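Researcher: Good morning. I'm working through a list of sequences from a screen, and I'd like to move beyond sequence-only analysis. For each chain I'm collecting a predicted structure so we can compare shapes side by side. This is the next one on the list. No need for commentary yet; just the structure.
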Amino acid sequence: MKAIRVSEHGGPEALRQVELPDPDPGPGQVRVRVRAVGVNFIDVYHRTGLYPLSLPFVPGLEGAGTVEAVGEGVRALAVGDEVAWAGVPGSYADVAIAPEGRLVRVPDGLHPEAAAAAMLQGMTAHYLVRSVYPLGPGDGCIVHAAAGGVGLLLVQLAKRAGARVFATVSTPEKADLARAAGADRVILYESEDFQAVVQEATGGAGVQVVYDSVGRTTWEKSLGSLARCGMLVLYGQSSGSVPPIDPQRLAKGGSLFLTRPSLFDYVADRSTLERRAADVLGAVARGELTLRIAATFPLAAAHAAHAALEGRLTAGKVLLLP
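Model: Good morning. Structure tokens for this chain:
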């Protein structure tokens, strides 16, 4: 099998293709021929050591493919089934071994690239909007990095929930994408102060929730954009880690809430994973949720995929195609 391996933490050049022995599935495991792999910022954090893993390791958590062998005790899946996953380590490869319980069936007719593009980012948008802060009609929200893979899906789901959406982006081209996804007001953060824009647009009331995957450069103004008892959902840190926060800052801001959630806590049990994945993949298959696949790279060019993602050169999902 071909796989991408990280032997030491570092830049995109730390991603190197190697050949490894073909794995056999153990009890309760499934071997999948990988058709598409999702590239996500958490893969960057693993590569750099921000979220350290034991070296060496094969990065990647998300993908889609075809079952080609099952281990002892596997009952729900069979050879030939089309499956997708999020949270299966070692996905940057043309073959992956996964616990049966972490795989979900792909709806008929949904392409593996779409399934891989939807799993992690789609379920992230889903749990943020449905579970962390359940948006409803009349709520206001800010979606940072709104032209990214998660951001475009967040905008769509927030609008479906009836919310008023403020979207921040870096370029006019990305602004067009956010508007097409349904954003009510798009803010070019390099030339506009998003906090000032939101406060003016809401008459000083602020918004109920900010979905912030950027971190260091946005968190203070994100807090300043919140309504009384509003919530800052800090679910990423693409610009760097947020410094320590005095809880009194939340009190002074109007009894604010701050949470740092992770998708994997919101799909920890099988029934929740199945329900969330079915909602997302089903919506994509029916055309109710639009995916934007920004770029695809061959597996051997994983370093180029990471460079594009980190350099903000993409708008939408990045995939590796083994």
